[in-house]
Amino acid sequence: MPDLRIGLAQINVAVGDLDGNVAKILEYAGRAREQGCDIVAFPELAVTGYPPEDLLLRRRFVLDNLAALERIVERAPKEIALVVGFVDAREGESAIYNAAAVIRDGRTVEVYRKHLLPNYGVFDEDRYFQPGTETPVLQVAAGRFGVTVCEDIWFEDGPQRPLVQAGAEVIVNINGSPYYAGRGREREEMLAARAKDIGAPVCYVNLVGGQDELVFDGGSVVVNERGDVIARAAVFEEELLVCDLGEAKPAARIVAPLTEEAEVYAALVTGTRDYVAKVGFENVYVGLSGGVDSSLVATLAADALGPGHVVAVAMPSRYSSEGSIADARELAEHL
I want to staple 113 with a disulfide (CB 3.0 to 4.6 A). Which of 39, 97, 183, 212 is the partner? Predict the structure, then answer.
């Protein structure tokens, strides 16, 4: 195992907010440099936000994303390698790629283009991207590493194998992996199998936050070559997870998983909070009937936005019981 310190920047970005996303990437890159990281990795398509969907059909947006990446190259701290998800486009070609730029000391030293493009469920990457084919191995002072993007790591015969065969000592996998109940456990089981199969650590960084109908849980993790979790970030929170690879290194932060109920509730709060914030709303209105359903919605909204941003509305009719009206009033008072 290489004697390498890696930072996994589990950040919350917004689709289309190139300036805000660049600022956040640079902020976390600076924090990683201050903590002595050799590498800091950011989530899939961190520059554009994920998923950018039909914005990718606008050439101007793709070019603006490339200009945003150049601002990162120019302003990123020196003596640390950044792995940054962005949309790659070759001059004179219409094809675009879901890609990761490896940036160091004021230049882009390599670009990895995602090989395996998912086209099921919420994913529609064949609509936009062309697959990559190359598997470059990168060198930093502390060791050699390879980069893959999200879906690439889910298959046993994915690009992680040729990367290790070409000399990579660790795999950095950047992700925009949406949440559903039990997803974190599935990921870690898969990552343990991949790490043991290739005999090398896998460093998995995931997006966190809500974007439209999707919620990303984070849960970034480092798995060693034996399949053991040696670092784990919190779920549904931004975090810079720092892990020292190599024997006899101090233990990294390993956050215990939430219970399923707590995890689902956190997902609902996160999705509500970010949907409201990212579309520019300030307040929400909740109709209270006095029943369990509207009470739960009001509680979620208050936890997501703060009670000062939740307006409870009662709409009693001749069919409403006194108990329902009283319960709705009491809930509003307790928010």
Answer: 97
Alpha carbon separation from 83 to 38, 80, 203, 246 (Å, rounded): 11, 10, 12, 20
Q: What single DSSP character describes residue 286?
A: E
Q: What are phi and psi of 309, to 5 degrees?
A: -110, 10
Among 317, 272, 310, 308, smallest CA distance to 290 is for: 317
The model's pLDDT over 193-226, given as tens digits with 9 standing for 90+, comes to 999 999 999 999 999 999 999 999 999 999 999 9
Q: How far apart are CA 239 and CA 219, in angstroms?
A: 10
pLDDT given at position 319 = 66
Predicted confidence (pLDDT) at residue 253 exceeds the cutoff of 90: no
Confidence of residue 2 (pLDDT cuts 50, 70, 90): confident
Tell me the catalytic residues.
Answer: 44, 114, 150
Question: What single-letter amino acid sits at 299?
Answer: T
- For residue 84, pLDDT over 80 is answered with yes
Q: How many angstroms from the chain centroid is the CA of residue 172?
A: 14
Q: 295 in the Ramachandran plot: left (φ > 0), alpha (ψ -120 to 50) or beta?
A: alpha
Q: Could you say which DSSP state residue 290 is in?
A: S
Residue pointed to by tokens 């006194």 = 322
| 164, 199 Cβ separation under 8 angstroms | yes
CA 256 to chain centre: 19
Quick one: which of 110, 115, 147 has its CA closest to 130?
115
CA distances 32 to 29, 35, 38, 79, Å, are 5, 5, 8, 11
- Sketch out the chain's domains with CATH numbers: 5-258 (3.60.110.10), 282-334 (no CATH)
Q: Where does the pLDDT of residue 128 fall: very low under 50, low under 70, confident under 90, or very high at 90 and above?
A: very high
Whether omega for the bond prior to residue 201 falls within 30 degrees of 0, making it cis, is: no
Residue range 65-82: mean pLDDT, rounded: 98
User: Distance between CA 169 and CA 173 in Å, rounded?
Assistant: 13
CB distance 127 to 139 below 8 Å: no
Q: Say how far apart CA 241 and CA 139 lie, in whole Å.
A: 21
Q: State whether residue 29 is helix, strand or coil.
A: helix
